[in-house]
Specification:
This protein is an alpha+beta fold. The chain folds into 2 domains: 55-255 and 395-492, Aminopeptidase; 260-390, Alpha-Beta Plaits. Helix content is 36%, strand content 19%. The chain has 15 helices and 19 strands. The strands form 6 sheets. It has a 6-stranded mixed beta sheet with strand order 1-2-6-3-9-18, with helices on both faces. A 4-stranded antiparallel beta sheet has the order 13-15-11-16, with helices on one face. Strand 1 and strand 2 (109-116) form a beta hairpin. The two termini are 32 Å apart.
């Protein structure tokens, strides 16, 4: 392994970032030898000629990354039930010689922190990824949304051609596996960095919150997400200069994500029976008119806010937000006794928001929409309540060294610089928002996508080749960032 003195000799110029190892006298004498006009090298000399980049990248292998991801998928880790996944991460860290920390968030829930210590003086980089999955993998919880429990929505990995499928494959155990593969490559290659590399496997990122409803109260750890773990990381001593969140974005660079507000809109009627239906006001039927009005407003809101943000950011390719609006749930009446028309029907609405958007402004707009519906139909009564708000976030400095490092890494792996972030990645919230708001410069760079050509509704998936590409990008970012002089970088911010 390299010692501190040798690491200190590395040039920190951009041109030499990926060719840091100086040529030896032995190699200089050897280049004078050739056979038939071509240089010849012994195995020892070929090893001597390799750069740190060559060594590290050569240690990232498809089979190992695939095995790690499939092991992770096989561990059930719904929100609130991440402990087994946390144990797995801690054991993998220990196997790599990383310092470990179980950062308790609440009973039986902890963030799994691993640190690959540097030799000193370099900038530090965190790879943040949530361990909880979007779904539980259990029919009793998931079937009402999915409609059918395909195998790809269960915590059991399987291969489908060159795709790995199973719950968590793209959200976001794929990146956790790529983080591990990148760090493992440094250990295998015997290459040390000046700055620390941190992997933070966090709990409770999934967008959910406890909420009482007409039928039941959704309470407990299963519903405590919305960035719980990363918020705890950044406020309980796990600090780095930079961070990368590996949420899926087809290895683009995302420097901004929307926030969201959730609203319960209650449509009030007057109950009656089927036999006297003319005397009642059916809240379910009236809710249909409210839904139409919300759809119309939502389309206009999304277009208007997206255009405003694009103009605000001067069409910067990494700042792309499409703040969608979705009516995600509806409840009312008795399924076991539809002979009564219900007096109340609740709609649950998700509104995505731009960074800095005041949720109260969204609430005011919704109230105006509902007032318009009431004017058109005096029988409709409504009330609206905001029960969740989670702000958007963005990288304050588009010229951050982090962005340049990611550009160089992606270009080396993919053959071209990342382009404009596709709109399909412009509507999800992620932990990058929290880290940026709490002072850690962060971007999103992750493998995978969910385009129509492959999203068949039968479960999560990731192309295993993209898994390897991601690990290489993460390793190159480490070589770049963590070998920079921290004091110099901090002075340029």
């Amino acid at each position: 392994m390299k010692g501190p003195s040798e690491s200190a000799e590395r040039s920190l110029s951009t041109a030499s970032l990926y060719n840091a190892r100086p040529a030896s006298d032995k190699w200089r004498s050897h280049v004078e030898k050739h056979h038939n006009g071509r240089y010849t090298r012994t195995p020892d000399e070929r090893e001597e000629a390799m750069t740190d980049t060559d060594r590290v990248l050569s240690c990232i292998d498809l089979e190992g990354a695939r095995r790690t991801l499939m092991e992770m998928i096989d561990i059930s880790s719904p929100t609130g039930g991440e402990a087994a996944m946390g144990d797995y991460m801690i054991e993998r860290y220990r196997g790599l010689g990383m310092a470990t920390r179980r950062l308790e968030v609440e009973d039986n829930r902890f963030n799994a922190i691993g640190v690959l210590k540097g030799t000193g003086g370099g900038a530090s980089l965190m790879f943040d990824g949530h361990m909880d999955t979007s779904l539980t993998g259990q029919e009793e919880h998931d079937i009402s949304v999915l409609g059918e429990m395909h195998e790809g929505f269960r915590p059991k990995a399987f291969r489908d051609d060159h795709f790995i499928r199973g719950l968590g494959a793209w959200n976001m155990k794929h990146s956790l596996a790529a983080y591990v593969a990148a760090v493992e490559a440094f250990v295998k290659a015997g290459v040390q960095l000046k700055g620390d590399v941190v992997i933070a496997g966090v709990v409770g990122e999934i967008e959910k919150t406890p909420v009482p409803t007409l039928i039941k109260a959704y309470t407990g750890a299963l519903y405590r997400g919305a960035g719980l773990g990363s918020r705890y990381v950044a406020t309980h001593g796990v600090r780095t200069d930079y961070a990368i969140v590996g949420e899926l974005n087809d290895l683009h660079i995302t420097a901004a994500h929307p926030g969201y507000c959730w609203f319960k809109i209650s449509v009030i009627g007057h109950f009656t029976r089927t036999t006297a239906i003319a005397r009642g006001v059916n809240a379910v039927k009236k809710a249909a008119r409210v839904i139409d009005a919300l759809d119309l407003w939502g389309s206009s809101y999304t277009q208007r806010e997206a255009q405003a943000y694009t103009a605000q950011k001067n069409q910067h390719p990494y700042y792309v937000i499409k703040p969608n609006v979705n009516i995600g749930a509806i409840e009312g009446g008795w399924p076991y006794k539809p002979t009564w028309s219900t007096a109340i029907c609740n709609l649950y609405v998700d509104v995505r928001t731009l960074p800095g958007k005041d949720p109260l402004d969204v609430l005011e707009e919704l109230e105006e929409v509902l007032a318009g519906v009431r004017r058109q139909d005096p029988q409709i009564q409504t009330r609206v309540e905001m029960y969740m708000s989670n702000p958007g976030g963005e990288l304050a400095n588009p010229g951050s060294y982090l962005v340049g490092a990611a550009e160089r890494a992606i270009e080396q792996v993919k053959g071209s610089k990342p382009g404009r972030v596709p709109e399909e990645f412009g509507s999800y919230w992620c932990d990058m928002n929290i880290l940026n708001r709490l002072g850690i410069e962060s971007i999103t760079v992750g493998p995978g996508n969910e385009r129509e050509s492959r999203f068949d509704g039968k479960g999560e998936y990731v192309d295993e080749r993209e898994l390897v590409d991601a690990a290489k990008v993460y390793a190159l970012c480490c070589l770049d960032i963590c070998n920079q002089n921290r004091a110099q970088l901090k002075g340029k911010r």
